[in-house]
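Hi F.,

I've been meaning to write this up properly since the lab meeting, where we talked about keeping a consistent format for the predictions we share between groups. The idea is simple: the sequence comes first, exactly as it goes in, then the structure tokens exactly as they come out, then a line or two of notes. No screenshots and no reformatting. I'm using this chain as the first example so we have something concrete to point to.
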Amino acid sequence: MVQNLARLGHSITAYNRTVKPFAQDMPENVTVALDVHNAVAVQDVVFVMVSDFAAVESVLFDSGAVESMEQGTLVVNMSTIGVEESRRLADRINSFGLRYLEAPVLGSVKPAQDAALVVVAGGQVDDFAQAEPLLAAMARKSFYLGGVGQGAAMKLLVNSFLGVVMETMAETVIYGELSGFARETVFDVLEASSIWSPVLSAKRQLVVTDDYPAQFALKHLLKDMRLLLRQAEVVHGRLPLASTAASVMSEAVASGFGDLDMASLVAFMAAQTGGERQA
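Output, unedited:
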């Protein structure tokens, strides 16, 4: 995402909470900071993308980063957090004289590399207008959905659908095996049908090879499902399929599959039905 953003020619300072050997891959207009204060000082826009709300609070507030930002800096949170969490975060950021835009993304590693993410944003329309040209460098489409909370709500809605699809895919593959079909055959037939989708295409090879390096870790999808179910209670929504999928994911994570890709639900279900694969 940083590399795609750098193509616009802006001067960019990048910071990661854990040290990773990525500096040599960065364009000349990207400086890798070892200190978060140096990363956010004298910046017009600060993007944040971490794993959850606690991590957002840690990188912005526990570190003191917000105190190093100039008044009026636009903080764009691309992390997936809850609706009420995003609203609380906006209030807290605003209290420092800063501006806030939520802009979680749809897509994982490959779409990020290909600048093919989809952004679902919420906040002030003027803040979205400022961020939109930058978001366009990382995403094929950016939606402005209204005030703070609307972007978070849409991201959770989409990930709920994703969670149900992953759980259903796992059931389908395992039922297919129990019925005597190879996984490759199951996917061949699904691909020829009207229900085929990009996410099934993306996960096909992982499932066929029974190897699940994390593109989107199962534990993170479970986190999002739980956030969705919490928000559903707020809006009096009834989500029986999402609730069931989250329950299965919870069992899988407890069984050691959490750090694997979300498609590892297939391996978990295989183990539950007598298969040999273990986390």
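Notes:
The radius of gyration is 20 Å.
The first strand starts at residue 12 and ends at 14.

If this format works for you, I'll send the rest the same way.

G.
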